[in-house]
Amino acid sequence: MEKHVLTLLLKSLRLLTTGLLMVLPLLCSAEMVPTTKAAITEADPAETTPAAPAAEAVQGTLPGQPLVERATPMVPFDLWDRIRDGFAMDPLPDDRLVFKQVAWFAARPDYVERTVERSRRYLYFIVEEVQRRGMPMEIALLPIVESAFNPHALSRSQASGMWQFIPSTGRIFGLQQDWWYDGRKDVVAATYSALDYLQKLYDEFGSWELALAGYNCGEGKIRREIAYNRAHNRPTDYQSLNLPEETRNYVPKLLAAKAIVLEPEHYGLALAPIPDEPYFAAVTTRKKIDTKIAAQFAEMSPEEFLMLNPGFNRPVISLDFNQEKTILVPAGVADRFVARLEDPNVKLLSWKTHHLRRGEALDKVASQYGLTSEELKRINGIASNKKVAGGGTILVPDKSATPSESLELDGKPESDFSPPPPSARSRHARKSGHKARAGSKAKAAAPAAHASKKAAGKKPSHPQQK
Predict the structure, then answer these.
(1) pTM of the prediction?
(2) Per-residue pLDDT tens for 332-341?
(3) Which residues pair with 68 in a beta bridge?
(4) Domain range spanning residue 86?
(5) How far apart (Å, rounded) are the C-alpha atoms in residues 250 and 172?
(6) Is 225 a catalytic residue?
């Protein structure tokens, strides 16, 4: 009898143990979430860390296992946030003109959208350089005012590029300008020169508002107005000077752009996110190459390639053959671009130079190469209404060209573009600190800075480019 009872007790104990083992995992999973929530609720708000990326709850692989949190991929930091964090300029005492400029932008959302779309190619590089130099981040927005981030912009006063240099000031700041290339439109070189110039003006005037005014209407004008006000015991700040109307609106326009970046939704606008990472990489080479072929190597359309490389004036990338050329390509394709450029079996050129004999008709030359005279003039930068007298050199198609053939001009280009004097041309020494020589590994980073050059150039006023 006692043996039978003992057997029943053992069976009951075995069943109870089995039940507990089955229920215990479920109890653990049910208690996990409340415990976590309680810990978050009880924590001191001042001691909590920033929220982590959103997590996805995933069921365990076996029944009864607790839920496992799997972090979602990190979203790249938005460059606009970095720009906002770097703003440092004070508001103007009289901000009525700022509100007027804000209203101008707010009434043109399509214009703002196009400007932001263009800026995404260049803004990371500009922000990096502005921050490296310790400048206020408002300066990174100046191309909005100057050109709406259009590197091909040309004003009535012949100011060119994203930073709107006139030819003389561009040459003073080392920007090469000749038949093949215009450094004022070069994204990297012109940015370096513009920031050099602005820093020089700030060092002289001690105010970013006055430095910006000098950039717009010329430093000589600012010097004269400061001297006049001092002589009459008047204030010499930006808003106290007698400045041209465009210059009076110049800083307010920049501060209006700042206000919109700070709170775009407040003005009914939206700024598309821009990743805080390099958009382009710089590749350096001594090779001559067609822009269309370079665009193919960079996996871009010719139009998009020239938005990154607007400084090249001709269908051939060919500067001084004793100097390296810097080509910008999307950061993700830089290594492939270099490999294609180094391939000895790839044809890089489809153009050659043709020396026009005196009296040789341009129409006849164009027909020899399967072009119209209008096309040939456009390729060579010759005005459509200009008559060519001969004796100059032009570019013409060459189906048999090889990479070893020279494209050096053996005469004056038949173009309306007048090359600068050799002394100014030799000042050009802008080079990228993070670049890939043909045959080396490309680096997708912002090029490093260069030494600032002393200058006393003057930049005239010009209308905002759209």
Answers:
(1) 0.68
(2) 999 999 999 9
(3) 58
(4) 79-267
(5) 23
(6) no
